[in-house]
Amino acid sequence: DVKVTQSSRYLVKRTGEKVFLECVQDMDHENMFWYRQDPGLGLRLIYFSYDVKMKEKGDIPEGYSVSREKKERFSLILESASTNQTSMYLCASSLQDMGSYEQYFGPGTRLTVT
Amino acid sequence: RKEVEQDPGPFNVPEGATVAFNCTYSNSASQSFFWYRQDCRKEPKLLMSVYSSGNEDGRFTAQLNRASQYISLLIRDSKLSDSATYLCVSEMDSSYKLIFGSGTRLLVRP
Fold this sequence. Notes:
The complex is a heterodimer of chains A (114) and B (110).
Chain A: E1 4-6, E2 10-13, E3 19-25, E4 31-38, E5 42-49, E6 56-57, E7 64-70, E8 73-78, E9 87-94, E10 104-105, E11 109-113
Parallel strand pairs in A: 2-11
Antiparallel strand pairs in A: 1-3, 3-8, 4-5, 4-9, 5-6, 7-8, 9-10, 9-11
Chain B: E1 4-6, E2 11-14, E3 19-25, E4 33-38, E5 44-50, E6 55-57, E7 60-65, E8 70-75, E9 84-91, E10 98-100, E11 104-109
């Protein structure tokens, strides 16, 4: 059974703080993704990674960076948190199999920036 | 225009009803489509895939209409446990990336 875990379910940070969100998957998936989900806007892709040390920008990368030092771990970094980054953050992983695009999601981190 | 558009609902139906959701997509090159289910305060989970010939899984049927660029999800004999948000999803240019609609909320009442 695929398992994607995220370091925190709820997080409260102050404006200007550096924030680290960690994601770990245990199924040896090559692809990993970070999304944010806001009411009425759906899931929006922030960054994704096809391989270790490899990253590509998604639709809304501004204000975020990522790190993938190991295959199973993909970190999202908010360099200087702002109130408009208050959101639900979801990590996902998938295989590099053109016959299957299914992404498996972690439980999410609800981040509040005050 | 959003790449994947859905009616946000909510669709409020009695138990046992049949309910259908539609979703439109803008990229005619997309080949694969999916319906994900998301319960309140939970992560999205794959409900079913939709390929060119459509797909049926128990009470759930998904159809694809390429000419009109829409997909549909039909739920028969609705259960209380079907209450959730249903996300319409397309793949993007065979890139492993997925594009998610904003979701359609379904409420099934006793």
